[in-house]
Amino acid sequence: MSGVVDLAAVKAAQEAKAKAEQARAEAARRGGTGAVSPADLVIDVDEAGFERDVLQRSAEVPVVIDFWAEWCQPCKQLSPVLERLAVEYDGRFLLAKIHVDANQLLMQQFGVQGIPAVFAVVAGQALPLFQGAAGEAQIRQTLDQLVQVAEERFGLTGLTVDPDAEPGGASQAPAQAPVGPYESLLNAAAEALDAGDFAGAVQAYKNVLADDPGHPEAKLGLAQAELLQRVRGLDPQRVRQEAAEKPADAQAQIAAADLDLVGGHVEDAFGRLIDAVRRTAGEDRDAVRLRLLELFEVVGAEDPRVAAARRALARALF
């Protein structure tokens, strides 16, 4: 789900939460409950309404996009499954259907090569999910991962659904949610990241974790900020040359793995450190293992590449 490492994810999460809270407050001011009808969980979207119906809504709920056409036979198999699951998931995601013949620009922007094609947008960030008429078990697994990522990384818990609500309320936000106790610190950390003040961001996240050691957003933010702080000032060519010349040098491999991850080469970073675990012993091996665990935090425990690397690490150690 993660794709390459998104080093702006924490800032995007804060912006998404702020927009969702503003929408909830506006709904409360109007005297509405913010609940939507089950009929509002599946919407037709075109180019004119894409920003409003998908980008803005993705600040409060994951939006799954189904690219389809009437002439597409696999679409006729997939679309009803997605529509049924949208209602079954009870507001944990919103299904946006885009007819490709009438929305060629959106098709090009998402890089759709064939249909059916399914994407998601979470806090304004696009994620490819799958292409073709996938089986329901695969679809459910993918949706479960999407919902988990949206909640853990962006705090998006979805829409409130009321079977008695009038259809047409999908543009309203859910009821007002309380602001978390660490919002000011997390906002300060996100602003520091945006300004390149990685030391300031590290300290802000540590302040949150000192009071709440398990805070998921602070843990992710700290891992990302520390990674950026480490690679600042490194000479990539020199680091990679030294790593190639000294395969058993723990620090050389650690520095190269950091660069690999920042560049989005997740599997290369993991593989490099697992190989280093096999080649080293004692304190050097411990240093490599600990750095690998830190990189797992950056990518996210739900990423399948992390699970595979954990198994490989266990084999290398034992």
From TrEMBL:
GO terms for biological process: response to stress. One of its GO terms (molecular function) is protein-disulfide reductase activity. Keywords: Redox-active center. SUPFAM superfamilies: Thioredoxin-like (SSF52833). InterPro entries: Thioredoxin-like_sf, Thioredoxin_domain, TPR-like_helical_dom_sf. One of its GO terms (cellular component) is cytoplasm. PROSITE patterns: THIOREDOXIN_2. Residues 14-148 form the Thioredoxin domain. PANTHER family: GEO12009P1. Belongs to the thioredoxin family. This is Co-chaperone YbbN. It comes from Streptomyces naganishii JCM 4654.
